[in-house]
């Protein structure tokens, strides 16, 4: 059956969502895979499987536009080339499962990216054979996901609070008369704690009771954090032999949460949003929704798996590119307290930026820096694209309810 695909390449995990073209306008998660590329000694690439140091690349999706390449064994390639290879693999993996290629693909990116970074990603995607692609800002994808489930009237404003494992952002979008969305304001967090930092704070809490030499793994701390994120207070979680209660953990991360909320409120400015949308796996922590609800005079809405909201919204945006806007659906509001399955984000369909234009190929001006020139070997993205074999299917690529901090 014909479908379109949305791909959200996060720092920790990459999520793909599919949306059918011959049925309802809802999107479903099709694949979740760690954002890891490994170059093997045989010259092939695998996806989602960490390998030896120096042969594995992680965290490259947010480095697009960086002039410094990444080294993988004897190869060097840019962040946009690695991201394009990962997107190409995801498209191929979903196509194998569904038996056909998607009609169109939407790939998300941070709202703060300018024409240069978007153009770099477009060029890299074309180099690996991905041509029918639209780039969608992440907050617009989150809003599109919301609009699919709840009616959003023209002029309505939505705020997007996005918190993943390594990134935080706050955005405000507005519904236009043409049932599209436009970005009004956006702030990228720099010195803010994110999901990975919450793991570190939990580790510090445990070591504070056991001593600095306590042996506690990062995996154990992340699992304990997920257990402590559940809405209803439960039994204390045992970490490294120490019982940690939910109140203890909330008290430990409270200053970090207050900092995040304060930055979010500054991003809002005078805007009075109709709702706040939660996106990113770290938003599973109920303390996030509670702090936002106490600070804004509107609903705070988040899905049971907020780390998938952006990918599903991207798939809905791709559907709009292919089919155009449909008649306004009847509202299907399933909100319960902080969690909801709403979806509303009419991606502004129109002329897609052309990467061949000068503004897409010329990097933004930078202050002069006296740095000795470094001669780099020629890029080999075409050969590497051929070497990207389906060996990555051995990785954990299925969606699971306990996946967190997907961004």
Automatic annotation (TrEMBL):
TM regions (residue ranges)? none
Keyword list, A-Z: ATP-binding, Chaperone, Nucleotide-binding
Region listing for Disordered, in residue ranges: 348-407
**Source organism superkingdom:** Bacteria
Provide ranges: composition bias, Pro residues: 362-376
Could you state a single Gene Ontology molecular function term? ATP-dependent protein folding chaperone
Write down what this protein is called.
Answer: Hsp70 protein
| Species the sequence originates in | Lentzea fradiae
């Amino acid at each position: 059956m014909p479908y379109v695909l949305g791909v959200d390449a996060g720092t920790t995990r990459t999520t793909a969502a599919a949306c059918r073209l011959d049925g309802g306008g809802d999107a479903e998660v099709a694949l979740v895979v760690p954002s890891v590329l490994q170059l093997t000694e045989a010259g092939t690439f695998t996806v989602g499987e960490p390998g030896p140091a120096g042969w594995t690349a992680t965290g490259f999706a947010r480095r697009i536009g960086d002039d410094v390449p990444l080294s993988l064994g004897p190869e060097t390639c840019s962040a946009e080339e690695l991201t394009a290879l990962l997107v190409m693999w995801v498209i191929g993996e979903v196509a194998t499962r569904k038996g056909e290629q998607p009609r169109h693909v939407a790939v998300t990116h941070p709202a703060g990216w300018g024409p240069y970074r978007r153009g770099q990603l477009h060029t890299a995607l074309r180099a690996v054979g991905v041509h029918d692609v639209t780039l969608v800002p992440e907050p617009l994808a989150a809003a599109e996901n919301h609009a699919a489930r709840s009616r959003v009237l023209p002029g309505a404003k939505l705020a997007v609070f996005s918190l993943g494992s390594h990134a935080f952002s706050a955005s405000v979008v507005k519904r236009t008369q043409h049932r599209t969305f436009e970005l009004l304001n956006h702030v990228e967090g720099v010195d803010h704690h994110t999901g990975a930092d919450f793991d570190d704070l939990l580790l510090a809490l445990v070591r504070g009771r056991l001593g600095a030499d306590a042996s506690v793994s990062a995996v154990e701390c992340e699992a304990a954090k997920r257990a402590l994120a559940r809405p209803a207070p439960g039994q204390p979680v045992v970490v490294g032999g120490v019982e940690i209660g939910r109140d203890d953990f909330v008290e430990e991360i409270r200053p970090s949460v207050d900092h995040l909320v304060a930055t979010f409120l500054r991003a809002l400015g005078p805007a009075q949003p109709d709702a706040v949308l939660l996106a990113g796996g770290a938003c599973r922590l109920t303390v996030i929704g509670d702090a936002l609800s106490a600070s804004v005079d509107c609903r705070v809405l988040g899905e049971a798996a907020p780390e998938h909201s952006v990918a599903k919204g991207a798939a809905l945006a791709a559907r709009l590119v292919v089919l155009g806007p449909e008649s306004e659906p009847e509202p299907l509001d399933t909100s319960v307290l902080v969690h909801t399955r709403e979806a509303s984000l009419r991606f502004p369909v129109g002329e897609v930026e052309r990467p061949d234009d000068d503004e897409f190929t010329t990097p933004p001006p930078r202050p002069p820096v006296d740095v000795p020139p470094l001669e780099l070997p020629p890029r080999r993205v075409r050969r590497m694209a051929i070497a990207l074999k389906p060996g990555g299917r051995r990785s954990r690529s299925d969606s699971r309810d306990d996946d967190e901090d997907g961004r």
